[in-house]
Specification:
mainly beta, single chain
């Protein structure tokens, strides 16, 4: 009969490698969308206003070969408040400065079930992970002319602190010493691709609208909402 510590070591090896990779590489490559714009917002030199990014991800995987079921749920939101750049160069291109506030909540559940056999009874091992993160600070967003009254907003990337906590339980015929629960700090990176938007010819210097952004994984949804203006004197 295998000890519980052996079962936990196998489960921890199977789960923590992919999970660490997902947590440490949650940055996406830039893509572009052409979106119509509307409405007005204020600014103070350069571009001013707000940009909001949101992301959700729901993922479930069943592995009958290893008797394992995994599920992951993630939500994140970032709000960027730009104050512009009064000292920036004239023209449409440049980086506007401001602040960001972001939060992330991640949940993971992994369950291994072994049926009874002639050597041992049935055994179930469960691993749960929680990864909350939140923070804010200074940031900047590049807003660049693409020609034909189109402008590229971003891409953006920010990093903020969080905590990675694991809780492990067992039931059935799992003998031996269980691996301990763990909790450790992490640095969470959140990134979103650039968005190419179309200026309203009736509202020069205004970029406002929303769009769905491309995702990299099944079950993932991302959106961006922006409401920006450029001071007339900086055009």
């Amino acid at each position: 009969m295998l000890s519980e510590s052996v079962w936990w070591a196998a489960l921890g090896w199977a789960l923590q490698g992919p999970v660490e990779m997902l947590l440490r590489s949650n940055i996406y490559f830039s893509k572009q969308l052409n979106i119509p714009v509307k409405d007005w917002d204020s600014c103070d030199g350069g571009w001013g206003g707000t940009i909001t990014y949101e992301r959700t991800w729901h993922w479930v995987h069943n592995d009958p070969v290893h008797n394992m079921t995994e599920a992951r749920n993630q939500t994140s939101r970032e709000v960027i408040s730009l104050r512009g750049d009064p000292n920036g160069v004239t023209g449409w291109n440049g980086k506007s400065h401001g602040t960001f506030a972001a939060n992330f909540d991640g949940k993971y559940l992994g369950v291994n079930r072994w049926p009874a056999n002639r050597f041992s009874g049935a055994c179930t091992l469960t691993a749960e992970e929680s990864t909350p993160a939140a923070g804010g600070g200074e940031t900047g967003v590049q807003i660049s002319s693409q020609g034909d009254s189109k402008y590229l907003i971003g891409p953006t990337s920010v990093t903020f602190p969080g905590t990675d906590t694991w809780r492990r339980t067992s039931s059935g015929d799992c003998k031996g010493k269980a691996l301990p629960n763990t909790s450790s700090p992490l640095s969470y990176a959140m990134a979103f691709p650039g968005v190419t938007v179309q200026e309203d010819p009736n509202q020069p210097g205004v970029l406002s609208g929303s769009a769905s952004l491309p995702g990299n994984m099944p079950g993932e949804a991302r959106t961006a909402t922006w409401n920006l203006t450029q001071c007339p004197g900086r055009r």
